[in-house]
Every structure is written in structure tokens, then in C-alpha cells.
Amino acid sequence: MKRLYHALVCTLVLLTSSTAWADECTGTVQSVTVAPEGDFFVNFGYNRVRICQLDGSVNVDRGSSNGGVASISAGRCAALLSSFLTARASGKPITARVGSSSCAFVDGAYPNPYPFQFVF
Hints:
This protein is of the alpha+beta class. The protein is 28% helix and 32% strand. It has two helices and eight strands. The strands form three sheets. A three-stranded antiparallel β-sheet has the order 1-7-8, covered by helices on one side. Strands 2-3-4 form a three-stranded antiparallel β-sheet, covered by helices on one side.
């Protein structure tokens, strides 16, 4: 009986710890770049990824299973920039949770699907 209870508890832990996202892309921020037109890019080991536009809002597609299209305002973009700069200065790794099965982001482009969570 004790064995059965132990097996049941282990199974529940595994089931409840499974995640809804398909992939986590973790790396240390290597560079943070802001282009003259306000585009903000980060490289955390998976090419230089476009994050948002500091001068206005941008619509990004997080994938249908993760909320679909979302808007990132200039204010939210500034907050993300601050978070990425802090991660860069501290050397702590960040994680981008994506709804695809790959962390192969296209250099300089908005990721598609766009990460639906950044963990700092």
C-alpha cells in the first residue's frame, strides 16, 4: 500500500509540474541593442531577437494555444528593456517560453510564435 501511495504521489507531481508551453529557451543576455527607429533587440544565445518598438505599440503572434495576437505598448516595451538590461548587468540567465518546439529564432526578426512569457 505504501508503494502504491508513493507511486501515486510521484505521478501527481509529474503531472502537475508539466508545463503548457512547448519549449523554454534559456540563456544569458549577451547584448541589448536599440536601433535609431526605436526597435529593441536582445541576444541571449539564440540570434539577435527583436523584442518590441520603444516608440509605439507592436502586435506579436504568440500562437493560437497561447493567446494569439497580443499588443506590446511602448510603456511595456520600456519595462522589458529595463528587465533585459538588468539581466545583462547581473549575468543571470533569462528564459523565454515559446509555444513552438524550437528556439531557432530568425536573426533580427520578431519571433514567430513570439514568446508568451519572459522569466527573469
